[in-house]
Specification:
Elements: H1 2-9, H2 11-38, H3 47-52, H4 59-66, H5 69-90, H6 100-103, H7 112-126, H8 134-152, H9 154-163, H10 180-183, H11 188-218, H12 226-235, H13 242-249, H14 253-256, H15 265-275, H16 286-294, H17 298-311, H18 320-345, E1 354-355, H19 356-371, H20 389-392, H21 399-406, H22 413-418, H23 421-431, H24 436-448, E2 451-459, E3 466-467, E4 471-481, E5 503-510, E6 515-523, H25 527-544, H26 549-564, E7 567-575, E8 580-590, E9 598-607, H27 617-625, E10 660-661, E11 664-669
Parallel strand pairs: 3-9
Antiparallel strand pairs: 1-6, 2-4, 2-11, 4-7, 5-6, 5-8, 8-9, 10-11
Length: 680
């Protein structure tokens, strides 16, 4: 009985241990994530961003952000753990070691006369004839008498000195840390113990496995439904225009689950009238087009109208019921657009090439959603291929302001950025009628806008010339600079209700064939991860080229310094195409800013593979020695895939000087321009 009571007392310790094993690591992980999020709070300080409220942490917003199901469960479990610790510390049933000298109130090694004297003194206090209290009787029999016997009886004292107990050697007992009622297998307690074992050992793991498998079978690692990826893959076309990307985007399975209530009909009809000009309806057959639009799946209609409400900045006209769906649609948008971009870049031919035109269209749609700028604003006006869209992302700018400054021959966004502070302040104050506070807001946003520099190299390691079928290495450094000196920062997006990191896509493409040869996502927020990735890539590259340890460490140090200075390494491989001269374009497109994309021209010459299987170094050398340098061919007029809204004009792009030697082709583009052109 005593042993069972002892093991029953251990039950809280058992529960505390089981709870602490997963809870402590999970809590540490949550705290680390929260700490990392705090380092990513560098955002725009203009009045519009501050007025949006998404960066303002009021007490109610902090409580609402904290009061999630996982956080409340975590707090509850910690409260239970604290209670268990307190209970274990103060529980009455404690495991005590038998100490006869301590029981009699003596020091170890006391004489026999002192032992007898202490026993007589305690007998007067606890003996049943002197004290009728039952507890006193139990204490006298169980402790005082045994302690006296252990110290006076020769055999008992010998057992105590040898084994630590007057009764001799004690056996070691193992117990189950469960409550006593579960250990009584007679009657109903046996069934309870059986249910306990079945529930903990069988049902609980089974339920967790079923939940995990059902979720993993429905969602990808990026929390996007598999059905969405299937739909995007099959609806993606090589000639998909940017205006048609929206039709593919809204067909995500996540948007199909948005509820369509009867009360939404009237607000959606009012919203339709507000955004009708952006829906690409044929005005000649407007009635038929409207009827066709409303015959679509109700969830798709609702999703497209809510996205158009974001693009046209008409969210203030939404009813309270639609406002929740509106935020849900925008919250899912970046994740779905990233997967849509991947579906545009997924290999579609034998060479493993993706498609450029739909990829650019996805990036344009992402930019417009984040900045709340209508797609129609990207139509070419004057000398700007981006239209007035880059201007509209600036605070206090509208179409009327753009027309006013255009009269002063500021027709492109890059011309506005290239002006000095005084010139820009004078233009905005005298021509646009801005106040000093509004001018300051514009300057803060322009300081946050990134400028990109791209240095790209295509080479085959240690070989002369690039031959068809070779594995070509793309090595590029993308450098980001801002006027305010920051590298990683959140973009200016006052109309987007959530915090959004800016991402860039590096696309090495051939515009004439609409093929993307190589692509990679680039992010400037996590410097530590970028340093780790760059160091590992440089080490592998140097080891593959046979470099020694000193050269490798020096290259790694240089790469780390570049990353800390605001550069990111882009490294990958692609198979060389058939023999010929290829005019490639390195696109670096942003998913958040309009007018900050970068485009660099790169010419690659692919040689024919020789019959003997050699690298054809002589052929490459002969081609170079004809004129002493590689002959530069004129770039043919290429179809511009950068925007559907651009007019069919010949691109006036400067041809960069290339070096084609030892299988290495390099190009460098500096300065970020809205049109994506290069500066010599």
């Amino acid at each position: 009985m005593a042993a069972s009571e002892e093991t029953s007392a251990l039950f809280p310790i058992f529960i505390l241990t089981i709870m602490a094993l997963p809870l402590v690591p999970y809590t540490i992980m949550k705290l680390c994530r929260a700490a990392s999020k705090k380092t990513k709070t560098i955002h725009c300080q203009c009045s519009e961003c501050l007025r949006s409220g998404k960066y303002h942490k009021s007490i109610f917003k902090r409580i609402s952000n904290f009061s999630t199901c996982s956080n409340l469960t975590l707090v509850l479990l910690w409260v239970v753990m604290i209670f268990l610790v307190y209970y274990i510390k103060n529980m009455s049933s404690e495991i005590q070691v038998f100490e006869p000298f301590s029981i009699l109130g003596l020091e170890p090694g006391a004489s026999e006369s002192e032992i007898k004297k202490a026993y007589r003194r305690l007998s007067i206090q606890y003996h049943p004839d002197k004290n009728p209290d039952p507890e006193a009787h139990t204490y006298f029999v169980e402790f005082i008498s045994k302690a006296y016997q252990a110290l006076t009886d020769p055999i008992s004292r010998e057992n105590f000195e040898k084994y630590g107990h007057p009764d001799g050697k004690q056996g070691f007992q193992m117990g189950i840390a469960l409550p006593q009622f579960l250990l009584d297998i007679d009657g109903a307690s046996g069934g309870i113990l059986l249910l306990w074992i079945v529930g903990v050992c069988i049902l609980l793991p089974l339920v967790i496995a079923v939940i995990y498998l059902s979720r993993s079978s429905k969602y990808t690692g990026n929390y996007v439904m598999h059905h969405t990826l299937y739909t995007y893959y099959h609806l993606m076309k090589p000639s998909l225009a940017p205006s048609k990307v929206m039709e593919v985007f809204i067909k995500a399975a996540e948007y199909g689950e948005i509820p369509v209530r009867r009360t939404d009909t009237e607000p959606l009809q009012k919203l339709f009238l507000l955004v009708r000009s952006e829906l690409n309806l044929d005005l000649k057959n407007i009635k038929q087009e409207q009827a066709k639009f409303w015959k679509q799946h109700p969830a798709m209609v609702k999703t497209e109208l809510l996205i158009q409400a974001q693009l046209t900045r008409e969210s203030a006209a939404l009813s309270p019921g639609l406002l929740g769906d509106f935020k849900h649609v925008l919250e899912l948008a970046p994740r779905l657009l990233e997967e849509l971009m991947k579906m545009a870049l997924v290999p579609r031919n034998a060479q493993g090439h993706g498609w450029l035109r739909p990829a650019v269209g996805v990036a344009e749609l992402s930019q417009c959603i984040i900045q709340a700028v209508p797609l129609s604003a990207r139509k070419t006006i004057g000398g700007s291929t981006e239209g007035i869209a880059p201007f509209l992302q600036l605070p206090h700018f509208n179409e009327a302001v753009v027309k006013k400054i255009a009269r002063k021959k500021v027709r492109t966004f890059q011309e506005l950025r290239d002006m000095t502070l005084d010139e820009r302040a004078e233009l905005l104050t005298l021509v646009a009628g801005f106040s000093s506070t509004e001018v300051q807001d514009v300057e803060r946003v322009l300081e946050m806008m990134p400028s990109l520099t791209v240095e790209v190299t295509c080479e085959t390691g240690g070989e002369e010339g690039i031959q068809e079928g070779d594995l070509v290495t793309v090595h590029a450094w993308v450098t980001l600079e801002r006027t305010n000196g920051l590298v990683g920062a959140l973009p200016h997006a006052p109309y987007y209700p959530f915090q959004k990191e800016e991402n860039f896509w590096f696309l090495l493409a051939e515009p004439t064939s609409n093929n993307v040869w190589f692509s990679q996502k680039v992010n400037f927020m996590d410097e530590a991860a970028a340093i780790t990735a760059a160091s590992k890539a440089i080490e592998e590259t140097m080891e593959g080229s046979g470099a020694d340890v000193k050269e490798t460490s020096r290259a790694v140090r240089e790469a780390v310094e570049k990353v800390r200075a605001g550069s990111r390494l882009v490294l990958g491989k692609f198979l060389a195409p058939p023999e010929g001269n290829y005019s490639l374009v390195c696109h670096c497109v942003c998913d958040s800013w309009i007018g900050c994309d970068k485009k660099v021209n790169l010419k690659v010459k692919v040689l024919k593979r020789t019959r003997a299987g050699t690298r054809g170094g002589a052929a490459a050398e002969e081609a170079v020695m004809d004129d002493g340098i590689e002959e530069e061919e004129e770039i043919e007029e290429e179809e511009d895939y950068e925007s559907e809204y651009s007019e069919d004009e010949a691109d006036k792009l400067d041809t960069k000087k290339k070096s084609v030697a030892n299988g290495k082709v390099t190009a460098k583009g500096s300065s970020s321009e809205g049109s994506g052109s290069d500066e010599e």
